[in-house]
Every structure is written in structure tokens, then in C-alpha cells.
Design a protein that fits this description.
The structure is a homodimer of 487-residue chains.
Chain A: H1 13-29, H2 42-49, H3 53-65, E1 69-72, E2 76-79, H4 105-112, E3 121-122, H5 135-148, H6 151-154, H7 163-173, E4 185-189, H8 190-202, E5 208-213, H9 217-225, E6 229-236, E7 240-241, H10 243-255, E8 260-265, H11 279-292, E9 295-299, E10 325-329, E11 340-344, H12 349-360, H13 365-377, H14 380-405, E12 411-412, E13 420-424, H15 431-440, E14 443-444, E15 446-447, E16 460-464, H16 470-486
Parallel strand pairs in A: 3-14, 5-6, 5-8, 8-9, 9-10
Antiparallel strand pairs in A: 1-2, 4-11, 6-7, 10-11, 12-13, 13-16, 15-16
């Protein structure tokens, strides 16, 4: 920081710390100090500016209140990950106008065939960071579990899943504020089967399901598969589903004679937005669902991956939330390839168990037992702390790269958890064309049209920021050039 | 054998060998020689009966033609496993009268909750014999695969399944007479998911599916889950579905304006009958399906477990069979707990792949890779030879025990593969009551009502004979006493 003395006196004392704060803020916005950087120590800044320690402390506290910087104990003040306010966040939520069904299956299917391309930089699919995952530890546990549990091979295993993993899931729900019994848990093939079974159990064919907009395509697929239609609801980039818009939609469909039967939401770190609902909004959501007789199905698959210390609560944790259905999995946190998810379904438990048995009999045993052992003795919490930190860092890096390489009009979300970014490209940019162009250059992005049954997100892309590397940065730069060329 | 001289002369020479044959047959039926026993050598019998070697040979050949005995090279003649003609086989097939849906979910669900009971003798569920399965070998392969393929944990894996296992499945189809490409195979959660996806892809909601009667409840569940109804067709205990009855049913439903859309059959070792269709019948079935525009879905899950040396062919192997959909799994042969099945769906391939992705994204990776490695280098064929022999023996033991302990009016099937027996109890015996009574004594049987949407099999039970032990024999004896008491 350049040495400069700020003149004291003349105006009120409060002005002085504000001046200091303004100057520091200017340097943050000008990217002299970048997200994650350590700011000068209080003593140092006091000397540089020729002001008192108290004045500097007041200035830093003001910036802290503005969400630009944050203190770390014994270490000083740091620029907040999202202090870089350029580019701003996309604010536009453009739900499909009418209840409708997902129709982009073919595109999605053709995308799944590209996964194995050699040298592909995958910014499209929501895979966790392989370097983070406890792969070696799981392999060791697997060897011993396979030796100690021969019945995991020769038996079918209980339709609801093994007791060991159901107990761990119940225990861990406590950190999300809810008291759940192991007997309520049904193990599924990831969160996707959990949602499919939940929708099937809760809704009548031809029914309507309210969802966030934009909405993860897996949700739209599950709704279509269950013979239902989605009603997309305006969703705010940071705060989650608009409860006002939800209530309007519920009213409207009720008046149309086909009332919405369920609301499938992801209050904690929604995919693709990374939004997180406040406790107040969660309580209001429960209240609305009760008033309209709508079943709440909560997708909590990213719930453990918040960037701040506190694990946000699930709807079950709130008064009146006992009847919500919870869907989740370990695919984002421990091992996608193990395909271990779960559903907790309250009064639909028995029906879900029946459906599960009819469809796949039971889940493979070994992955369940291995994850149960990892949760019990493997240091999941320690691993999670590291994962959250890495994802927060990678997401910041990706926001930063987008801001540097994409056209200035681009907007990008600032998720508070998970590892996905939602990027609004310049008006008129066709993200499907970008997808094709990028794929030809071995870069894989997810076009926005997959996140609605309508066409409202044609100029959006979702980028996954699970990993970060110079190659990924170069790919983002290349993407930026393509978008510039398309403008 | 008691020494006795059969008088030569008087009547025609042909009579003499027939007399010998009658006497030997009598001793078999009286259980002096029991299934599997070695008969006296030709020389010995010739000496005992005071007849020529040629006469004895003629007698043995006659008994061989009657299916009572069989020669083993360098070893002599043996009583055939099914030579014990008491009790006879059940011949009654009583399909539900009208197209209908499975309604015994609750009973089935409550049964799945009993599996873990301590000390339960499980003769109900179709689990393979744990002692036969290559559990230790799989555990060793698992350890090395987990080390060598970290991507199996951190990646989702291709929606259709890993190439390695799809190649092995394609290769092995050759032994069932069919040429299949790995690209046609989609890996599923066992045969159950395979059937569910196939029905969903092939049929329109509200449609009809022809099935064998009795029919495995898993098939009835899958049909119900897909929003379809089953049309049950008379099935012969040894020869499989009656093609005449099938054609009548297809005609009838066509005339009713709701033509049958698919026929889901298990030509090779059907569950619960163990029947096996002849090649001629398989060809006729294909012909009928073409004439009526019905899609054939073949459940081949027991196809590798025939008791005779030749692997029966699947429908795909026959002219015109290219369009059949094949469903199968390794749950009966390698590891039920791995849940690795597959579907080969011809022109429905793309739709099945799409449905699979919508429902469960992809199958767990490690079980696929382990089974692929076992099939490649693990000695699957050798293992299979042993398994077939053991199952043939255990099935014979079970038939034998039923004949000794159950009331004389009981009838029992003689499967040519698999490890299930279909037992007809005395008229009026309620197998659901028997189920409850047996369960109270820690014996688990499968009541016949689960094998139809109607009530035609109330006096039947299915017994699983995968394992055999003195405890199981004692359980069968106890069951027999219960049935006697119920009469």
C-alpha cells in the first residue's frame, strides 16, 4: 500500500475511519488487493496512514460489515472471496410460463457420451474434485469390509439398506438440525433415485410439482419420469426460491383445478445457483406448504458443502417440518461412483420401501458398508472441512477467471456452497452453440437450456468449479474468446 | 439285489429283458435304489438273475429310454435324479382370469423384513448358495480393482456401464447362441431394473403384458410399477408357456381392443417352475410374437444354471429373434449383493439408456469392474460347472425330502435348471396360513399367491433348494408335519 497520510481534524472523527475504509475498498475493487489476499496489519496501516490504531480498526470493521473483508484469528484481515463485485451476479430468473415436461433428454444423453473423451476439460458435470475425495482410504476400507462381510456379496441385503449406514445418516442429520431415526432411512442409488421414488410415492400421475428456476435437470428428469409436470418458480440467485412467486403459482394452479401436489426444492446450495435460504424463509416455506396442502421434497445433496462454518439446517429441523421428504446422497462428498443416496420420507416411508423393492430390490451392499465405516472412523468431518475450503477457493478462482476472460456484460453467481457457477452471457449469446463450439475444443460446459423446460436460460451456462488448475484457467480463457467472437 | 432267477423261454425273448427292467424299476420306485445310486453292474445283474449280458443291457437301455436311469462312462448305470416318480409333478396352471395388477406388495414387503431373523431357515427367497459363490476370489479382485481404478470411486461412470463388463457380457452371449455387441448392453441394478426399464421403454401406459402362470412376483411387480397389467397364460411345468394358450390370449385381447404389447417370458429355467422351452417352441414363440406385433422380453437370469451340459439358447439366437429384449443379471450366479444386471434392447436401446440415466444416473462402478475381471480371468466356467452340479444335487435332495415328509397328495416340480421347486399342497391347504405357521417356527417359505395376480396358487408353495443341509432337511420334515396337521 502506498504510503500516504490522511489528514486528521477538520471534519468529524467518524469521517477519518470512513476515508480509510473507502481507500481500502477502492484498492479491493481495483483488484490491487484480490479476493483471499491478506490486508496490511492494523499496526502497519496505522503507521502508513498516520492515524491511530483505533481508527484503522474502525475502518476494517466497517469493511467487514460491508462484507468486503473478514478477520482471521491471530492472522489479520483478509479480502473476502466475493469482495470482487465485478462482474455482478445474474438476477434474472425466467421460469417456463406453463407447467411442462423436460424435453432436453436427447441433448443430455448425447452429453453423457462425451464424458470419456481423452483430454476433455469437464466444466459441465457436477463431479466433485477427485483429488479431494478419500479414494485411497475408501479402497483400504473396502478391502477389509469385503473380507469381513462375505454376506455383502452373497446376500441381497435389506431393501431399505444396511443398518450401519442408516445409523450414520441418522446421526449426521443431527448436524443439520433434525432428529431422524435409522428406521426412517431408505438407501437409494444416489439422490436421483431418491427423488424419483419420492415423487412417485407422493404425487398422483399427471400432477404438478413446483420447482426452482433455474432447476437442476436431474429434478426435471425425475419429474418427467414420474409422469408429472413441473411448475417453475422465480428463484433469487442468493436467497433461493421466491416465496411470493411460489404462492402466486400455487394459487394459480389451484384455481386452474390442478393444484400443485409437491414442491421439490433445494434450500441449501441449490444447483445451479448455489443459493441458500434463510431460516426465516425456510419456516415461511413450511407454512406455505401447509396452507396449500403441498408436500415438500427437499434435495439436500450439497448441504454439507457450505463455505461458512455453520451447516445450514434442513426443513425437517423447523417446527412443522416433520412431514418433509429428504433426498440426499454421498455422491458430492464421498464417492459418486459408489452411488449411495437416501430418502427419508415420513409417512411415505412404507410406500417408498415398496417402490424401491419393485424397482431394484436392494442397493449393492459393499458401497453402503464402506461409507458407513468411513463415516464412523474415517474422519469425515476433517475431510469435509478441507473440502469446503478447497471448493470455496476454486469457486473464487473461477469467478475471478470469468471476470477476467469473459465479456464485461457477463454476470456470475456467488454461491455460498457447492461448486457450481451460474453464468449469464451477453444478451443473445446462444449457449447451445457455445457448447458445440467448446466441445470441439475439448471444453465441456453445460448449456443453460438444460435448467428449464422453457427457453429462458439460452444465454446462460453452468460451470463446475470443483477442480482448479492452470489448464482449467486456460480453458476458461478460451471459452471467453469464443464468447467474444460470438458477440 | 435279492438273488432270483428269472425263467427264460416260454414267452418271447423280448419279454425277458422287460421283466428285468420292470423289477429294477420297481426297486427304484420303492426307493430301494434311490436317485443318484449306482445300480448293480451288468455282469453282476446277469449273474444274479441268471440271464445273458445282452438281456441285462437291453433292460438297462429300456430304463434309460424311460428316463429312469443313465449310464456314466467307465462307471456303470445310475438312478436318474428324477427317477423317483412319486410325488408326480404339479400340472395345474391356473392363470388369473382377467388382465390385472399385482396386489400382494404388502405381503412381500413384510416378508423382506424377516430376512435378517436369527436362525431363520430361508426356503423362500431365490438366493444362490453362499458356499458356492466365489466370495473370497471376488474380495481379492475387489482389493486390486479398487487400488487400480480410483476413478471407480470419484467418477460417476458411463450411464450404460463400463466397457469391460459390457464386453464380457457380449462374449458370453455367444454361448447362448447369440451375437451381441458390447454397445447394445446397458448395465442395470440386477435383472429387476432391467425388466422395469424394458417394460417402460417398450410399452405404453395402461398396456397389457403376457406372462407365464405361475409367474415370478418380481415380474408382476415390474409390470405394476410400469403402469401396465399382466395377462397370465397357462404354462406347462416342464415345457414352459403354452403357445396355444398364448395365442388364444393374444387374439382375445386384440379383439377386446387392447392388444397385448409385450410378452415377458423366461424360456430357460423359469422361476418358479424351472421349465425350459424347446428350440422348436422358442421359434414358434418368435413367430407368434411377429404375427401379433408383440415385443418379446426375455428374462434369462437362470439361463446359465441348467443341469444338463448344454447352455440353452436365448430367443435372440433364433431367426427372427433379433428384436427381442434380453434381461439378465449375475445375481444368481456370481454375487446378488453386487446388483449387476443388464438389458440388451435392440431398437429400444437409446430409450433404455435415457430412462436409466433419468432414474439412477449410472450403476456403481466397482461391482461392474470386479465381475468383469472375474469373468475374464476368474474361471467362471469352471465355477459354473460346479454350481450346476451342486444345484442339481440339492434340488434332487429337496424333491426327495418333499416326497418323504409331505402328504402323499403333494406334487412337486422337476426343474431342469435353477434351484427352485414348485410344490402343490393337498387341495384346500392355505399356503398363506402355512407361511405364517412356518415363520413362527423360523422356517421361511414363499406362498403360491405371490405368483399370480389371482388366487389360483393358494395351495402352492415355492421352495428354494440352493443350499442343502441336515438342518434344511429337518425344516422340510417340520413343514411336512405342519401340512399334515392342516389337512
Amino acid at each position: 500500500m502506498q504510503r500516504s497520510v490522511i489528514r486528521e481534524g477538520g471534519e468529524a472523527g467518524s469521517r477519518l475511519y470512513e476515508q480509510i475504509a473507502e481507500r481500502v475498498k477502492g484498492m479491493i475493487l481495483d483488484r490491487i488487493y484480490r479476493p483471499g489476499d491478506r490486508l496490511p496489519s492494523v499496526r502497519e496501516l496505522s503507521r502508513q496512514c498516520g492515524v491511530s490504531i483505533t481508527t484503522v480498526l474502525d475502518a476494517y470493521r466497517l469493511l467487514e460489515d460491508q462484507g468486503l473483508i473478514h478477520p482471521r484469528p491471530q492472522s489479520g484481515y483478509y479480502v473476502h472471496a466475493y469482495a470482487n463485485l465485478k462482474p455482478p451476479e445474474p438476477m434474472r430468473s425466467t421460469p417456463a410460463a406453463l407447467p411442462s415436461s423436460f424435453t432436453r433428454d436427447e441433448m443430455l444423453q448425447s452429453m453423457t457420451h462425451e464424458i470419456d473423451r481423452r483430454g476433455l476439460i469437464d466444466l459441465a458435470f457436477a463431479n466433485p474434485n477427485p483429488e479431494l475425495l478419500p479414494v485411497a482410504k475408501l479402497a483400504r476400507i473396502l478391502s477389509s469390509v469385503a473380507r469381513e462381510h462375505p454376506e455383502a456379496s452373497y446376500g441381497y441385503g435389506p431393501p431399505s439398506g444396511h443398518r450401519a449406514i442408516r445409523e450414520q445418516i441418522a446421526q449426521r442429520s443431527f448436524s443439520a438440525g433434525a432428529v431422524i431415526s435409522p428406521d426412517e432411512v431408505v438407501i437409494t442409488m444416489g439422490c436421483q433415485e431418491a427423488m424419483c421414488l419420492a415423487l412417485r410415492a407422493v404425487c398422483k400421475p399427471g400432477g404438478l410439482v413446483a420447482v426452482e428456476s433455474p432447476c437442476h435437470y436431474g429434478v426435471l428428469q425425475a419429474i418427467q419420469l414420474a409422469g408429472l409436470q413441473s411448475v417453475e418458480v422465480v428463484t433469487r440467485t442468493r436467497e433461493g426460491i421466491s416465496l411470493e412467486a411460489l404462492e402466486v403459482a400455487l394459487c394459480e394452479q389451484r384455481d386452474n383445478g390442478n393444484p400443485v401436489q409437491a414442491c421439490l426444492v433445494s434450500p441449501n446450495f441449490q444447483n445451479p445457483l448455489g443459493s441458500c435460504m434463510s431460516d426465516e424463509d425456510k419456516m415461511r416455506l413450511i407454512d406455505i406448504s401447509k396452507r396449500y396442502g403441498v408436500v415438500l421434497i427437499e434435495d439436500d445433496v450439497y448441504g454439507d458443502l457450505g463455505f461458512s462454518g455453520d451447516r445450514p439446517r434442513i426443513l425437517r429441523a423447523f417446527p412443522g417440518g416433520e412431514e418433509t421428504v429428504i433426498c440426499s446422497s454421498f455422491s458430492k462428498t464421498i464417492a459418486p461412483g459408489y452411488r449411495v443416496g437416501w430418502v427419508v420420507a415420513g409417512r411415505w416411508h412404507k410406500e417408498i420401501e415398496r417402490l424401491k423393492h419393485s424397482f431394484t430390490i436392494s442397493a449393492p451392499s459393499l458401497p453402503q458398508l464402506v461409507i458407513a465405516e468411513f463415516l464412523t472412523n474415517g474422519g469425515y468431518d476433517q475431510y469435509l472441512r478441507r473440502a469446503r475450503k478447497v471448493y470455496a477457493g476454486n469457486v473464487t478462482n473461477m469467478v475471478d477467471a470469468v471476470s477476467r476472460f469473459f465479456p464485461e456484460e457477463c454476470l456470475v453467481s456467488r454461491p455460498s456452497g457447492g461448486y457450481m457457477l451460474w453464468v449469464q452471457l451477453p444478451e443473445g449469446t446462444d449457449s447451445v452453440a457455445l457448447y458445440t463450439k467448446a466441445l470441439a475444443a475439448n471444453i465441456f460446459v453445460c448449456p443453460g437450456v438444460l435448467f428449464s423446460t422453457g427457453d429462458g436460460y439460452r444465454s446462460f451456462v453452468r460451470l463446475t468449479a470443483g477442480k482448479w488448475s492452470p489448464e482449467i484457467e486456460a480453458a476458461v480463457a478460451k471459452l471467453g474468446r469464443m464468447i467474444h467472437q460470438m458477440g
